[in-house]
Amino acid sequence: MSTESTKLAFNDGWQYAPAPESTDHISIDEQYGLFIGGEFVAPESGRYFETVNPATEQTLSSVSLASAADVDLAVKAARKAYNGAWSKMAAADRGKYLFRIARILQERAREFATIESLDGGKPIRESRDIDIPLAAAHFFYYAGWADKLEYAFPGRRPVPLGVAGQVIPWNFPLLMAAWKIAPALACGNTVVLKPAETTPLTAMKLAEVIRDAELPPGVVNILTGAGETGAEIVNHPDVNKVAFTGSTEVGKIIQRSLAGTDKKYTLELGGKAANIIFADAAIDEAVEGIVNGIFFNQGHVCCAGSRLFVQESVAEEVVRKLKDRMETLIVGDPLDKNTDIGAINSASQLETIQSYLKVGQDEGAEMYQGSGSLPEQGYWCRPTLFTGVSQSNRIVQEEIFGPVLAIQTFRTLEEGLTKANNTPYGLSGGVWTDKGAKIFKMTQQIRAGVIWANTFNKFDPTSPFGGYKESGVGREGGLHGLGAYLKLET
Ligand code: NAP
Ligand code: MG
Known about the structure:
This protein is an alpha/beta fold and 490 residues long. 42% of the residues lie in helices and 18% in strands. The relative contact order is 0.14.
């Protein structure tokens, strides 16, 4: 279908009827305390801040602003729980608590998905089918490891590290909390976790689940707050391990502040993934993969396929099909089950994306955007692609964290590989080809932690995840993810 005919179809009113998820089944408190020592407590400072729905700009709730004093209380509660019940408990019993959390998350999946979409702006289809099921899967997976750690590391004696300080971003709020909490607890650590400022609500709901699962008080503590709160957690002297997911900029600050301490750390940072399409690829599937790679979750994905490299002989066809597909993408209400692209997470992230759209045009690239309508209220960005870019352009080198794709071409495999590796990042990549030999060659030589072949953005708790170069240090997920929370004694 040509772009013209697709537009006609749209203009003729060929549209899905709205299919909004209801909000009748959820409850959000007007205000949340900090979850310390198994209960919700008021912040020392008495200060709160609001979290808004980015699709409507309406306030959903207010949450506590944790200060240094609250961080200290939380770390003390975590230490007490570590020295007390948690480290003395049989490993199989630790596993039972994790299984319980996993099951409650499954039972309350619809409520979690709805709140995730309300607070963060992601389409309900994603929070329902990806974020929440994967979060539960992480708890199930690590629950199974709790009493089998000595089999994971034969000949070594695995010992927990103590108190883990964990700081997470806003793009996969509950899932990132699960990635952090599940392996830490399975290995016998206790935690203090801070969600991102703009997406605290599913973390507060998770605190309720942890309370309902009757975990010993202090095993998990959840503090809402700002970047300073994160820094207080990272720099608290009684924290043994730091796990951070977020920007490379903040990751570097954290790495500097940890230098010279004996804290163990993992950093999951930014990315600028290459999606590489060879002429022999199944082009229609590849186009779907590109769309999924960059427009999924509004491009708020560290491993988003934000750089596309197309073999020259099929470049015209791929770009034409991509533009056609972009015309059919629905941007709008995150709670509508038909929505493909939800709201940008915050006003400031929208500003960042818009500034990059300007940079791209100023650099001389050609910009193309889907033409569908946008809601009046809220933060939105049309799916966008740039052609006519070069390797040195900022939109090719820097992470935009929005639904913005930069397209380049290549002739030979070597040229594709060289261009793909020309980035300070190395989190993920994608290869599309009919030939197994090309897949092996490319996947061995792309310097990135995760590489997909003929698919993109697939996640599984059994698979390790993490970056090369400025994309981070260490691995989360799978067996590798256990090692990050243990000392291995001989
Ligand atoms: P960010 O500023 O690095 O924030 C991530 C988390 O760290 C948030 O909870 C944040 O708190 C906290 N934080 C901020 N400054 C801190 C400090 N000095 N010490 C300790 N914690 C601190 O990232 P973001 O603004 O949420 O996201 C923007 C960028 O993050 C993206 O452009 C992308 O590069 C990167 N990102 C990467 C991933 C990944 O999985 N690799 C995921 C999401 C985002 P506040 O929320 O209060 O600022
Ligand atoms: Mg919010």
